[in-house]
């Protein structure tokens, strides 16, 4: 009877987790939509602020999960989610977009700068954890790295809204105080929903971890990260369908940078952590390095990512998840 209750309880927790992830995905879509409309209505002198808002929009689930788990005193969930999200973005998300779109073109300064900057910032948290954890000083270093990244974009004149967005083409500018206020209210409400959902998701994740005999880090790495990368997948598929596949890489690389530097830094400052589950974290870091390397090899020569290469990246993600389940058992 106890085992049956446990199974029913676990099923309830998993269903609640799935429902909360769906709510967060919908709220993120609303927030992105409102960010776009507010950004279009802002004057040129405020373009930087608008670009920053839209640039962070697809990482909103990771941001709110990170803040909620850190303030709850359980930063391992945030760490798992951020690591898992980066691996997912560079494997099953970009791979899925390549499979659907047949080819993802590589344009601009991607090979000369964007990928290398992304690789450095994505691996920096792992290097900082070699001493056994992430301290507040490490958090400051990560946030400083993000500020350098933004500063470099501004000075090179490359700072623009690179994200492929759910509703990119806005045919008319927003006019009138009432309409502007309505957009701001919707944006604030969506952020509140994200915050409440994130807090509830953290609490459910702790229950799931306890029921599975897993660590909160593992739940963040596998379960939550899969859900929080759905907005990136939706945005990428939307860009492919609109024949704007060249924007996909900017979207995903930007998300990886935000996750690895800004959000990871905030987590470390709010709730410094000690390194545990070294095998799981080591496997995650190994797969991130492998996926980054494969990603670079696939795109450096042909300046595109083909469908079969996307399938290979998806295969790497499935292999990663499978190994994590083997470790859990």
Short descriptors:
single chain, 329 residues, mainly alpha, A middle domain of Talin 1, two-stranded antiparallel sheet, 12 helices, disordered N terminus
The CATH topology comes to A middle domain of Talin 1
The CATH homologous superfamily is called NCX, central ion-binding region
Mean pLDDT: 77
Count of extended strands = 4
Could you estimate the helical fraction of the residues in percent?
A: over 70%
**Cα separation of the termini:** 23 Å
> Major sheet: order of its strands?
1-4
Discrete helix count: 12
**Cα gyration radius (Å):** 19 Å
CATH class: Mainly Alpha
Task: Give the CATH architecture.
Answer: Up-down Bundle
Number of domains: 1
Structural class: mainly alpha
- Runs in which pLDDT lies below 50 for 5 or more consecutive residues are 1-5, 43-47, 158-174
Describe this structure in a few short sentences.
The protein is mainly alpha-helical.
Description:
By secondary structure, the chain is mainly α. The protein has one domain (2-328): NCX, central ion-binding region (A middle domain of Talin 1), CATH 1.20.1420.30. Helix content is 79%, strand content 3%. It has a two-stranded antiparallel sheet. A two-stranded antiparallel ribbon has the order 2-3. Helix 3 (60-71) crosses helix 7 and helix 9 (230-241) runs antiparallel to helix 10 (246-270).
Topology:
Blueprint: H1 2-41, H2 47-57, H3 60-71, H4 75-101, E1 103-105, H5 110-128, E2 133-134, H6 136-155, H7 177-212, H8 216-228, H9 230-241, H10 246-270, E3 273-274, H11 278-300, E4 304-306, H12 307-328
Helix pairs in contact: 1-2, 1-7, 3-4, 3-7, 3-10, 4-8, 4-9, 4-10, 4-11, 4-12, 5-6, 5-10, 5-11, 6-10, 7-8, 9-10, 11-12
